[in-house]
Design a protein that fits this description.
The chain is mostly helical and about 200 residues long. The chain is built from five helices and two strands. The protein is globular, with a radius of gyration of 19 Å. The termini are far apart.
Amino acid sequence: MVKLNRIYTRTGDDGTTGLGTGARVEKDDPRVEAYGTVDESNAAIGQAIAMAGTFEPGTPGARVVKLLLEIQHDLFDLGADLCVPIAVGEASGAKLRITEGQVERMERLMDEFNEELAALTSFVLPGGSRLAAGLHMARTVVRRAERLVVTLRRAEAKETSEAAVRYLNRLSDLLFVMARVANDNGASDVLWVPGVNRSR
């Protein structure tokens, strides 16, 4: 159970922050950059939810918003995972870690949403409905989080979950698919026309 009595502690005034283990590291440490950007991804998803407005129950938009709220919980799990380096000999289930089941759920959701979408003939310009625009923004932040976790794994492979990379990779793809759903199942997508402005 998390209990926060006071928000400021002054312990970070020297440019360091505490990991979940209690160890102090620089605030720009690759591990802090990674879980900090996961937090930013979560905030971007929260903004997409706020931008969405309300949908009639049972509509695709309502389903997308419900799933986004569930994904926000996953991203807190992922932040908790990344802020506690994996210890040598750590017992399975001893710490909160992203699981392969959570990764596989992203894949199942993508498959379900994709069934209703027409195949793409070009890249999609980010935008469309308010919800789709918010999802595209969240997608790019999640991609950045993924890159930072890849960097962290390169530096601290044994201490960093491989499932974290896979989860973020699948989540970014899922957010793209959900953005198409939010654009009338892709009917309102605006496709990239290569070189369209070169002769203007």
